Amino acid sequence: MNRKLRPALLRRLRADRSGLALIEFAFAAPVLLMLSLTGAELTHYITTKMRMSQLALHLADNAARIGSGSQLSAKRISEADINDLFIGAGLQSGELDLYDNGRVIISSLEPMANPNTAGTYRIRWQRCRGVKTAHRSTFGRAGDTDLTGMGFAGRQAIAPENGVTMFVEVYYEYQPLLGDHLAPSTAMIEIGSMMVRDRRDTVGGDNGVYPVAGVTPSGC
Question: What residue intervals traverse the membrane (predicted)?
Answer without folding.
Answer: 20-40
